[in-house]
Design goal:
The structure holds 2 protein chains of 2 kinds. Helix content of chain A is 32%, strand content 22%. By secondary structure, chain A is an alpha+beta fold. Chain B is elongated and about 75 Å long. Chain B contains 13 helices and no strands. In chain B, helix 4 runs antiparallel to helix 5, helix 4 packs parallel to helix 7 and helix 7 runs antiparallel to helix 10. Helices cover 73% and strands 0% of the residues of chain B. Classes of the chains: A alpha+beta, B mainly alpha. At the A-B interface, helix 6, helix 7, helix 9, helix 12 and strand 14 of A face helix 12 of B.
C-alpha cells in the first residue's frame, strides 16, 4: 500500500516552496520601502517671514521653518515622539545633574564642524547661552526670562559645558531643547554680536545657499554633518507664501511637499478628496492659543469688571464646535494645553469666568458688570495681527460675541511685522495676542503672564505681584500635586479673579503632506522637528 | 400780479420737469445701454439707502446653526462660513461700495479739476512743476499706488478713501487741464481779466463751469474704478476690515477656502462687483457720448 500525501499537506508544501522562492525577492523590496532614501529637494511653503536671521530674538515660525535646518541646539525634543515632550541629546551627547539639581554638566560631541570648517566646542555653547541669558544692552533676546534660573554658564574644558542654577528647576532640560537656541560660533559673536541677524553659519544638516526676501530660502546638504549618513535630502527650498489658498494649491498641484504649520479641516478634506493616497495627514493638539490682551494702562480696561465682562461674553463651547470646521482651532482651554498633565480638567474649568456652561447666565453677569462699571455700550478698537488663519475667523467670532453684550467693536488689522512693535509700544486698547510653546511645560507656557516689568511680552501690561509669586511657587515645586495646586491658583487669578487675559480656543494642528515625505512626525508644536535631518523623499 | 407769480413759478417748474423728463427719455431712447447702466446705478443707490429696511437679516449676526448654508427660502443667496446671510451682507456691502466709490471719485475728480484748471490758467512754471508732479504719480499703475498709500496710511475707511483718491487726482487733472487750456484763450476769460476780477473768481466762475462735461464723465468713470479698487484692496486684506460688510471682503478668506463646497459665498459678491462696475462704465460712456460736442447726437 502506497502512502499518498493528503491534499492539505500538498497545499502547505506548495505555499512553503513559493515562500522560499519568493522570499529573497520580496524581502529587500519590502525593507527598501522603510529604508531612508537619499536625494531630492524638499519644497515647502512658509506663511511668514522673519524680520532677522537671529533665532535668539525672533518669535515667528517664519524663522524656525527655513532657518532651523542650518543649526543645531544643545538638546532637542525627540523628533520621533508625537507628544513632543522628551529632551534628547543633540550637540550634547550626555549630561549629569548634581548638587540637588543645581548643577547641570553636559558632555559635547567631538568632531562637530561649523559650516566654515572650524570645530564646535564648549566655548561656542557658552557664548551662545551668554547671549541668550545675559545679552548685552541693545541685543534682543526674546526668551531670556525663561532662563532666570541660570546663575552662570561655564566651559571648564573644550567638550564640557556647565550650567549653575539658582534653584532646582524641573523645566530646565526642556528649556535647553528650545529650537530657538541655535548654537552660534563664539569668535563671530565676539567680533560682532549682531552678525547673526544678517548672516547664517551653523553646524546644522544643511548649508545656507540664499535668501531672496519675500520669495524663498534655499539650503543644500551639509556633506560633513556630524550625524553620519544624514541628512537624506540633497537640499530644501522654503517658499514664502502668505495666502492659505495658494499654499493648499501648491500641495494639491504637487508643487510643494508639505506646509509644516497647519491647514484647516476643510483644507484637509479637500486635499484628501483630490489626492487620495498621494496625501498623508498627521494631526495633533497644538500648543498654541490666541489670547486677548486688555491693556490695563487704558481706561476702562484698568477695571477688572470690564475685563471680566469681556471674557464672560464669549461662548467658548459653541465656538469650539463651529469654528473647528472652518479654522485651525478646536478645544476649549485654560492656561495650559488640554489633556496635558498640568491642564485644568473640564469640570474645574467650567467654574472659571467665561467657561460657565450656561452662556445666558454669563452674558447677564457681563451686562451687570458693565453697567456697574459705567461701561454699557462701550466702543473700542480691537487690534489684530495680519495673518489670516486663525486670527481673522476668531476676530469675527469674538466681535460678534461682544456685540451680544452691547459692545461696539471695530477691528484694525496690522501687518504682522508692524504688529508687535505696536503692541510693545502699548498703543492698543484690546489686541489679539498669541501664546505658542515649543514644549508643553508650565514654566514656559505661564511665563507669558508674569508682570510686564518681568516680561515685556505681557501685552495686557499689568503688574501683579500675587501672580508673580504663584509663578515662582509652581516653578520651584518639586511635588507634582503641589505644583498643580499653585498652577490652579495662578490660572484662577489670571483668567477669573483679575481677568488679566482672555483665552480663546486651543489650536488643532493638521498637516496634510505628500505621501512621498517620510521621517517627519507631527507634534503639538509647529516649532519642533524642522531640522529636517531625518526627513527623506520616496522619489 | 399776486396770483400770477405762483402760476408763473409753477409753469416754470413744469417746464423744467418736462425738460428733464424729455432729456431722460431721449437719453433712454438713444442710449439704451447707458440707460440700463443708469438704472442699475439708481437701483444700487436705492438699495444702499434703504439697506436697514430691506435686508432680511443683520449683516453682522453670526449664526453657527446656519453656517455654509446653500441658497434656500430662508437665505435666498445662502450663508457664509459664520452663518451670516449673504444677501444681507450684499445689501449692506453696497453702502460700503458707494461710500468709498462716491467719496474717492468725487474728491479725486474735484481736486483734479481744480488742479487742472489752475495749472492751465496760471501756465508757466506753476504749470510745468504741477504737470511733472502729475507725471510722477501717473507713472504708477492705479492699484500699485493705492496699495502703497494704504500701506503708508493704514487700512481704515477714511484712509481707504484717501488711498483711492490720490491716484485719481493726476488722471483727472491732466484731462481737465487740456480742456481748460482752450477755455483760457476764450474772449470771456480775457474780458473777466480786463474787468479786474481775481484769479479765484475767474477760475471758479468762468473756467470751472466750462469743464463740467469732462468732469462729469471722469466722475462716473472714476466711480466704477473706485468700487473695483475698494473691492481689490479689501480682497487683499488691505481695505475694509471684518466684520463690516463689503463685497471685496466677502470674496476673500473662507470664500476662497470653500469655493468648491460653498460657491455662493464668492459668486454673488463677484456678480455684484461686476454688475456695479459694468453699470457705472456703461453710464459713464453714454454720458461722455452725450456731453462731448464732437460726439453729441442727443
Amino acid at each position: 500500500m502506497t502512502h499518498r500525501p493528503s491534499r492539505t499537506r500538498v497545499i502547505l508544501l506548495a505555499c512553503l516552496l513559493v515562500s522560499v522562492v519568493l522570499a529573497p525577492a520580496l524581502t529587500p523590496a519590502a525593507l527598501a520601502q522603510e529604508k531612508p532614501r537619499s536625494g531630492g529637494e524638499l519644497i515647502f511653503p512658509v506663511p511668514s517671514e522673519p524680520p532677522s536671521y537671529d533665532g535668539h530674538r525672533e518669535e515667528t515660525f517664519g524663522w524656525i521653518h527655513p532657518w532651523a535646518p542650518f543649526y543645531n541646539t544643545l538638546l532637542r525634543v525627540d523628533p520621533t515622539d508625537p507628544s513632543g515632550t522628551k529632551p534628547v541629546p543633540s550637540l550634547a551627547e550626555r549630561w549629569t545633574i548634581a548638587d540637588g539639581g543645581l548643577t547641570y554638566t553636559f558632555q559635547l560631541r567631538r568632531g562637530v564642524k561649523f559650516h566654515d570648517g572650524s570645530e564646535m566646542t564648549s566655548k561656542d555653547v557658552k557664548a551662545t547661552y551668554d547671549k541668550i541669558i545675559f545679552p548685552p544692552a541693545g541685543v534682543g533676546s526674546t526668551r531670556k526670562g525663561q532662563y532666570a534660573v541660570v546663575e552662570a554658564v561655564e566651559a571648564p574644558d573644550p567638550y564640557t559645558v556647565r550650567f549653575r542654577l539658582k534653584w532646582p528647576s524641573a523645566a530646565f532640560l526642556a528649556s535647553l531643547a528650545s529650537p530657538w537656541n541655535a548654537v552660534y560660533k563664539a569668535d563671530i559673536l565676539a567680533k560682532d554680536i549682531h552678525w547673526y541677524e544678517k548672516n547664517v553659519m551653523g553646524t546644522g544638516p544643511f548649508i545656507f545657499v540664499e535668501h531672496v526676501k519675500g520669495s524663498h530660502v534655499i539650503g543644500k546638504k551639509n556633506p560633513n554633518y556630524w550625524d553620519k549618513g544624514k541628512p537624506y535630502l540633497d537640499g530644501f527650498r522654503a517658499l514664502f507664501v502668505r495666502d492659505t489658498a495658494a499654499q493648499v494649491a501648491m500641495i494639491r498641484g504637487e508643487r510643494a511637499h508639505i506646509q509644516f504649520r497647519s491647514f484647516t479641516a476643510a483644507h484637509r478634506d479637500s486635499l484628501v478628496a483630490a489626492l487620495g493616497d498621494k496625501i498623508r495627514v498627521q494631526e495633533s493638539p497644538w500648543d498654541c492659543i490666541l489670547l486677548v490682551a486688555m491693556n490695563h494702562e487704558k481706561k476702562p480696561f484698568d477695571d477688572k469688571r470690564v475685563r471680566r465682562a469681556l471674557t464672560l461674553a464669549i461662548d467658548r463651547y459653541a465656538g469650539s464646535q463651529a469654528l473647528s470646521k472652518i479654522a485651525i482651532v478646536k478645544e476649549v482651554a485654560g492656561a495650559l494645553v488640554p489633556g496635558t498633565p498640568y491642564a485644568t480638567a473640564p469640570d474645574d474649568l467650567a467654574k472659571l469666568a467665561g467657561y460657565w456652561p450656561a452662556i445666558e447666565t454669563s452674558r447677564a453677569e457681563a451686562k451687570r458688570l458693565l453697567k456697574e462699571a459705567g461701561a454699557e455700550g462701550l466702543s473700542f478698537t480691537f487690534k489684530n495681527r495680519g495673518i489670516p488663519m486663525p486670527y481673522e475667523p476668531l476676530a469675527v467670532w469674538m466681535i460678534d460675541q461682544w456685540r451680544q453684550i452691547g459692545l461696539n467693536v471695530k477691528q484694525e488689522v496690522i501687518e504682522a511685522a508692524a504688529y508687535f512693535a505696536s503692541l510693545r509700544r502699548g498703543e492698543h486698547e484690546v489686541a489679539m495676542d498669541f501664546q505658542c510653546g515649543y514644549i508643553v511645560e508650565p514654566d514656559l507656557d505661564l511665563y507669558k503672564f508674569v508682570s510686564v516689568d518681568k516680561n515685556p511680552a505681557n501685552y495686557s501690561r499689568y503688574k501683579d505681584s500675587v501672580l508673580d509669586d504663584l509663578y515662582v511657587k509652581q516653578s520651584r515645586a518639586v511635588d507634582p500635586e503641589e505644583r498643580k495646586k499653585h498652577i490652579r491658583a495662578f490660572e484662577k487669578r489670571l483668567l477669573d479673579e483679575e481677568a488679566h487675559y482672555l483665552m480663546t480656543l486651543q489650536w488643532h494642528r493638521i498637516v496634510p503632506h505628500s505621501s512621498k515625505v517620510k521621517g517627519w512626525q507631527v507634534t503639538p508644536s509647529h516649532y519642533l522637528n524642522n531640522t529636517l535631518d531625518g526627513v527623506w523623499l520616496t522619489e | 400780479m399776486a396770483i400770477n407769480v405762483p402760476l408763473e413759478a409753477a409753469a416754470a417748474r413744469v417746464e423744467i420737469r418736462e425738460g428733464w423728463l424729455a432729456v431722460a427719455l431721449a437719453f433712454c431712447h438713444r442710449r439704451p445701454l447707458g440707460a440700463a447702466g443708469a438704472f442699475v446705478v439708481v437701483l444700487m443707490i436705492a438699495v444702499a439707502l434703504t439697506a436697514t429696511l430691506i435686508a432680511p437679516y443683520d449683516p453682522l449676526g453670526v449664526d453657527f446653526a446656519a453656517m455654509l448654508g446653500r441658497p434656500s427660502a430662508t437665505h435666498w443667496l445662502g450663508t457664509d462660513s459664520f452663518g451670516r446671510d449673504v444677501l444681507s451682507r450684499l445689501i449692506y456691502g453696497s453702502r460700503t461700495a458707494l461710500i468709498v466709490g462716491f467719496g474717492a471719485a468725487f474728491i479725486g475728480a474735484t481736486a483734479g479739476a481744480i488742479l487742472g484748471v489752475g495749472s492751465a490758467y496760471f501756465g508757466g512754471r506753476i504749470d510745468l512743476y504741477l504737470q511733472r508732479l502729475m507725471d510722477v504719480f501717473i507713472s504708477f499703475p492705479l492699484i500699485i499706488l493705492a496699495l502703497a498709500m494704504v500701506a503708508i496710511l493704514g487700512n481704515n475707511l477714511p484712509n481707504l478713501i484717501t488711498a483711492i483718491t490720490i491716484p485719481m487726482i493726476p488722471r483727472c487733472a491732466l484731462v481737465i487741464r487740456s480742456s481748460a487750456l482752450s477755455i483760457r484763450e476764450m474772449p470771456y476769460v480775457d474780458a473777466a481779466r480786463a474787468a479786474g476780477f481775481g484769479h479765484a473768481r475767474i477760475i471758479l466762475r468762468h473756467m470751472l463751469p466750462n469743464v463740467m462735461a469732462p468732469y462729469l464723465i471722469l466722475l462716473t468713470a472714476f466711480l466704477g474704478q473706485a468700487i473695483l479698487l475698494e473691492a481689490s484692496l479689501s480682497f487683499l486684506g488691505l481695505g475694509v476690515q471684518e466684520p463690516i460688510a463689503a463685497w471685496g471682503l466677502m470674496l476673500r478668506g473662507a470664500a476662497v477656502d470653500f469655493a468648491e463646497t460653498a460657491p455662493w459665498m464668492a459668486i454673488f459678491p463677484g456678480l455684484a462687483i461686476s454688475l456695479a462696475v459694468f453699470a457705472f462704465n456703461l453710464f459713464g460712456d453714454s454720458l461722455r457720448d452725450a456731453l462731448d460736442p464732437k460726439l453729441r447726437t442727443l
